[in-house]
Predict the 3D structure of the following.
Amino acid sequence: MNYKLNKLSSLILGSAIAASTAFGAGTLEKVMKERGLTENDIIRAAKTYLPSGGRDEFLVFSSGGQSGQMIVYGVPSMKILKYIAVFTPEPWQGYGFDEESKKVLRQGNIRGREINWGDTHHPALSEVDGKYDGKWLVINDKANPRLGVISLGDFETTQIVVNPVFKSAHGGAFFTQNSEYIIEACQYAAPFDNNYHPIEDYKETYRGGSTMWKFDSKIGRIIEKDSFTIEMPPYMQDLSDAGKGVSHGWGFTNSFNAEMYTGGIEVGMPPNEAGMSRFDTDFLHVYNWEKLAKLAEDPKNVEVINGHRVIPMEVSIANEALFLIPEPKSPHGVDVSPDGEYITVCGKLDTHASVYKWSKIKALIDAKKYVGKDPYGIPILDMKESLHGQVELGLGPLHNQYSNVDGEIYTSLYVDSQIVKWNYKTLKVLDKENVHYNVGHLCGMEGKSADPQGKYIISLNKLAIDRFQNVGPLHPQNHQLIDIRGKTMDLLYDMPIPLGEPHQAVAIRVEKLHPHVRYPMGTNSRTGEIHVGKTLAGQERIVREGNKVSVYATMVRSHINPERITVNKGDEVTMYLTNLERAQDETHGFTVDHYNVHASLEPGETGSIKFTADIEGVFPYYCTEFCSALHLEMMGYLMVKDPNKKYVSAQRLKMKTMTPEELKAEYDKTVAVNTATQAVIDSVVKFLKDNKFDEHKVVADLVTDAFDQAGQIPAQKKLADEAVAAGDMEKAILFENMIWQLMVKTADVGIRAKDTLVSKIATQKSSAAQAGERAFDEGGCSGCHVVGKVSSGPDLTGVLQRHEDGEKWVADFILNPEHKFEDPYVKGMIDYFNLKMPNQHMTKEETKDIIEYFKWIDENANLF
Ligand code: CUK
Ligand code: CUA
């Protein structure tokens, strides 16, 4: 091993391991060579690698862009964990295919029209004192001005609200510091009413604004009737941020068309892009939402448009609650610092970032020191007097994130394709890092909260040119993870996002999240309430009222009850489905073929699907998740018959039936199998009890799940015995079979519990023992030897004790088996197994490691 590699292994593996010979001249160096990896690659890999079963430190919620969904992934591993369906149907989650989620999705209808996509831009996490509380997540739809609310209890969308006055909305969602309101600013100015207004009347009838959505943090719902909109000039409001700390109670929204230009290429006018960027400055809107919320309570201060309260500009002006400050033209991001004192605006077309200071702005407002008024009479504050300063960053600065270091800020440079680290207090540029290419937003770890965590910045890039395998002209977009712990930034990892263009992403420490593993039995996951269709075992039924058929069904491994449903053509069928499972992750899916319905039912959940049975025929329905060994059997039939047709019964086929003796023999055999299976379960239970399973919560949970299944056995046994008493052996056999099914499921979870318990209580393997286990498995030993069991070779538990000077004896035997074939003990083994141990050509190192592995086995012999 060369010096560099030696240094490297001690870096990665810790000195203890490097000092030992476990990884010796070998494995790491070999892998690096084979895969063409450099030392830096390996360090970066080690920084992001998450071993199997490991957990990330942060979760990121990223906008899914035009997919209308959200993407959830971990940092630093960048492993995608979930898509959250928000504005777009998503069949796996049943979203848009079951009745409960359809209700949520249809809250997003606009003027009676179904909208089945969204252009998601800015997710936001609910806050207490400006810090994330891990409870609620919201995201905006720019194209169809809406907000979606997601519960972090189950990562499901529970509410969609439509902005009643905007025709598009970009500057949202931004929570105020105690989640009192969510800011959603307009984008393209348009009339607030739903009528036609000619573009020539733009200045008079088109408007922008900022909607303050009232949020109830306890229930996680936007309260539409308590929300209001602050009318603003048609300046094309863009991004926003809520003040916090010293600036709490205020909102900030920038804009990009102070020119109020309206284009007209088709009539010979220069295009929008020229006319909308003519002035040197646009306007940052500064408004006192706290004051305006109080004003909105008085009906004389508001105009009601489309049933929604709008505060006219005159009212905001008269009450000194709305101001403008010039900002460099066509800006994009506006970001309030963790303490609320500094407000950074980046000017896409300007190479500078402008840092405004809240105390200066506030002093100008208090002194009523204005430099003028805009055409609508809104007071304008002096730009220079509001500024803390400006700093030249590079081409196309867009968005900012903060770190845990005081004054440290990270800004994306869209045109330069760089991230720049600078200090908004000292106005000094500290470092730049190249990204690939055209970065939009950045995501810091809690980087827009009052409590940024530092450590990483993610660059959310629009282009992924040359980064990934070509998958056609539409490339994935690229999230790049950057380590910001050092003096300079270090790009660690590229993650392609194959779903849509992501804009903003927000990250939160995982310890702040506490999602549930199951629902209280019968929960409607979209409302959090108990579902009217909740059905427990024994309550399954089919109810008919005229042409309405309601099926109250249950699902549990591995059957759907009922299994046969016959309806008339034209009936309106509603199926309420309750997943009776308590076991973690035992989801059952449900569909009726050909009827475009699908539900995903998590343990304890009740959901429903609804359709008109308008085509005649036989339609299998089934569980769509491979939930158990008998998942394929988890099915039934919907039969739709035409009441106006006459059906002729089929001639019954003659089939051989079993004799009473044959039936008795099958019954006895089935009972015997069950008795033997019970013995296996008993032994697992004994092991679990002997090793105090209840001291380990994960294991105890699994045992509960196992007994959930076992608990159903007595009822089935009773039915089997009744059938025997009634002389119906056919039925008795089937019930005994059902018992076996329950036993298998019990054993399945029980063994999982046992394995988990073993991993909890076994002693830690040394790195040499780990290397030995790898050599044992990969070198072929495990082909014949199973630890704890005699298989095609002897059990190796205790092998080191079987011979004098055991370690040397075993090592010699591994290195040179042939030399011992005449040894009487070995001879006996060869005869018994009818097999000679082959020479696996292990190295001395590997042999030594294997001996360490055997020692570990002996230490834990009682567990195998
Ligand atoms: S926007 Cu996408 S890069 Cu909608 Cu926040 Cu700036
Ligand atoms: Cu339930 Cu498959």
In short: Residues 58-84+118-512 form a domain with the Methylamine Dehydrogenase; Chain H fold (CATH 2.130.10.10).
